[in-house]
Amino acid sequence: MRWPWSSTSEERDEREPPPWTDALNETHWSHYRDPRNVVPALILTGCALSVAALYRKYLKRIPQAINIGPSYWRKRSLFGRVTSVGDADNFRLFHTPGGRLAGWGILPWRKVPQTTKELKEKTVHIRLAGIDAPEMAHFGKPAQPYSQKAFDFLNSYILHRRVRAYVYRRDQYDRAVATVYVRKWLLRRDVGLQMLKAGLATVYGAKTGAEFGNLEEKYRRMEKWAKSKKRGIWSGNKKDYESPRDYKIRTGKAA
Predict the structure, then answer these.
(1) Which among 242, 251, 250, 253 is positioned nearest to 134, based on CA atoms?
(2) What is the pLDDT of residue 205?
């Protein structure tokens, strides 16, 4: 006899929840189709991909000239701090993409290394475009007149300063040939143009491989002005003058 308030085993089975292991393994596809879940997931994924692309394009540091990709040449610039000056027309740049806006010089992990050991293989070798400076002594070959003055000028003008280099190509010495600008007070100065103005460089004289951007005419006018004012290398006797290009040809030194 079954009491009125009692239930059958079948009724009890219908009311009882399924075992927890079954619920764990069950896939509720409705959650994946619910716009309240799908839309935030898509937005988050899109934001993550955008941040990654932004970092790769604008904030990824370039350690050396050999790491500069095709998208940079003649299209973009490198911003960074000058860590050393080699000759009077080339130097080393530690790339700091984004500058202070990206925390360089402010955040503890965004500092420019100071020692030669720390900087090894972490700087871009820059060759100033469009100019030739007097050659310093190399491999037993004597220095040209005004080579030390040209070096001292460039060293005092840009060493440890932030500069922007508009890169054109990589030369045979794995240097990035570039027009370089540095800020002096509120003005942006073309470093190569200032070397020409001081009479401490000539317009690049090689028939092939010359890079000027769109500044060749401006450079030639500045060289002509420095000659007329007899500044620097133009101040001596004309018959004793030897251009950096002629010196390299005579001594067998490449540009």
Answers:
(1) 242
(2) 86
